[in-house]
Specification:
Number of strands: 9
Number of helices: 16
Shape: elongated
Structural class: alpha+beta
Strand content: 5-15%
Order of helices and strands: HHEEHEHEHEEEHHHHHHHEEHHHH
Radius of gyration: 23 Å
CATH class of the largest domain: Mainly Alpha
Largest sheet: 7 strands, antiparallel
Number of domains: 2
Oligomer: single chain
CATH superfamily of the largest domain: Hypothetical protein af1432
CATH architecture of the largest domain: Orthogonal Bundle
Length: about 425
Amino acid sequence: MPGKKTSKRPVSAPKRDADKFKELLRITENLNHVKDVDSLLDNILYEARLFTKADSGSIYLADGKKLKFSYVQNDTLAKIDDTNNKYIYSIFEIPINDNSIAGYVALTGESLIIDDVYKIGNDVPYSFNSYFDSMSSYRTKSMLTVPLITSRQNILGVMQIINAKGPDGEIIPFTEEDRMYVAFFSNNASVAIERAKMTREILLRMIKMAELRDPKETGNHVNRVASYSIEIYEKWAKKKGFSLDEIKQVKDILRIAAMLHDVGKVAISDTILKKPGRLTPQEFAQMKMHTVYGARLFDDAVSDWDALSAEVALNHHERWDGQGYMGRVVCGEDECDTGPGKVGEEIPILGRIVALADVYDALISARVYKNAWLEEDVLKYIKDGSGKHFDPEVVEAFFSIYDVIKAIKEKYAD
């Protein structure tokens, strides 16, 4: 097939092959426990790169007749700029046709190995799109591109593994052995991606129900708050010295929990939710109860996801200075008693993070009842609120990745 080239790297012995397949099966089994689709893409790409000793990679997911740029990892860029996560939120799509490498693989369902993407001959229909290289000042060379195919043999997307590295860090071609392992892995990973996408769709439908009740709640709003939250958390956790595995585990469930932060509003009266003017003190007291109602949806937690969703729902309106709500809550069968607001580190860290993400998005976004604030005014409000409304360490993490925050805002624009 045009574009397929095989390196002279030695093929493994049978025992090593068997060990690698066992490792792939173990990794595939672990993928079944990942709940969020973005966390899953992160894990899939990481493991595929680890197996092939690749510097970079990306995943495109099919959306109709197009491929959407959905995830990217790049070790070289990460060393230069630790805010390179902004590339994850790039808005980039290509048609499924034979003009591009990814489009060709999605169209044909066949994998490609290319030794140097800048030296593709004229005997093939596809060419290399240098958009990402130009945007990021990166240099792609060797590439392995494999289709992601569902159990019904439909194209789910495409995974590209980029720049295999030799023992001395030099860029080398991918091998047929690499193709075999990554193809096996991608077939199994596709099943997990299908399941995670279904979970995401169910969540978005739940949020759509809340949106029908409260016009302030939109799919884009919750996607932004969730994305802001996981990126702020990752920056905060790395500074604290948390392990990569722990960060990945928390990000997996934090995104979903953050998307559901206001789900308790389904229990609030329409006369309050949809009131165009300022709420009375009695109405505001009822509105504040959405934090408790949201947490109670996850009573009798049977998983970390349940527990974290309850924690975020209950605490995302607490303030660092203790002037937030709902404070210390004790619920009986029929009603809940609330106390003074929690103070400082009494507020769980993920509640503190979602609080900042939610306020930022509320201020910088236009709503039917208000105009968007100017960006400089929003940032001043957050800076001034450090140590009062917000955890100072969370504010610091937010500003240190503000390029990522802006990329998220653009990707999920209303």
